[in-house]
Amino acid sequence: MPDIYEPDYVKELFNQMSGSYERMNYITSFGFSIRWRKQFLRKLGASQEPIQIIDLLSGLGENWEFLHKNFPKADIWALDFSEKMVRQSQLKNARKFDNKIQITCQNILANQLPTGYFDYVSCAYGLKTFNQEQLQILAKEVTRILKPGGVFTFVEVSKPSNKMLALLYKFYLGKVIPILGKLFLGNPEDYRMLWIYTEKFKNTSYVKQVFEEAGLEVRHEPYFFGCASGLSGRK
Predict the structure, then answer these.
(1) Domains of the chain (ranges, CATH numbers)
(2) What's this model's pTM, rounded to 2 decimal places?
(3) Which pLDDT score is estimated for 28?
(4) CA 22 to CA 19: how far, in whole Å?
(5) pLDDT higher for 130 or 205?
(6) Residue closest to 27 by CA, chosen among 168, 178, 156, 161
C-alpha cells in the first residue's frame, strides 16, 4: 500500500476528486459540513479593517464567501497544492469574487509565504491528510506566517467517541459513500480514502498539543457529538 501521507499521493487524490469534492463533502457530512464551516469561521469574528487573511488547503474555495462577507476590506489569500483544485477555484474566483482572492498553488509544508504577514489563518477539512511529523511542520508554519497576536481556526471531520455513532459513521463513510461515488462519480476508491484518513486522524485533540508546542495558544472544540472537531487560538 502506498504511503497515504506522501504529498504526491495526497495531491493526486485531490486532483482526481476536484470535479466532485464540494458535493461529496456535503453528502459525507449529512449536510453538516456547511454548518461546521460557519461555526469554525465565526471564531475569526469580523472586521472592517484592511487586514491579511489566508485560507490554507483551500480546496474549491468553500470558505471564501464567509471570509469576504465578514472581512470586506481584507486581502484574502488562498493556498492549495492540488493543481486541479486550484484550477476549479480560479473559476469560482473569477465568477463570484472578481478575481480578488489571491490564489497560490503551493505545499504548505514547503512554501514561500511571507513571515509574520497574516492577521488570520483559516483551514477546513485538511488536517486529516497529515501525519504527526507533517502536523509539526504545519504548526510551525502557522506560527511563522501569523503576525504576533494573529488568530487561526481549523476544523476537521472526526471519528466520534460514542461507539454506536462511530459504527454508523464508519458504515456511512466507509461503505455508503464509496457506492455513491461509484454510481454518480465513477471513483469509489478515492472517497473511501476519506474515511481511512478520518479513522486514522480521530480528532483534533492531539493536534492541540502539537500547536501548543509550536508556541500557539490553542482551544479544542468538538462539533455534533464529535463528528467534527476544531482548533482555534492565537499566536
Answers:
(1) 30-160+202-234 (3.40.50.150)
(2) 0.91
(3) 58
(4) 8
(5) 130
(6) 178
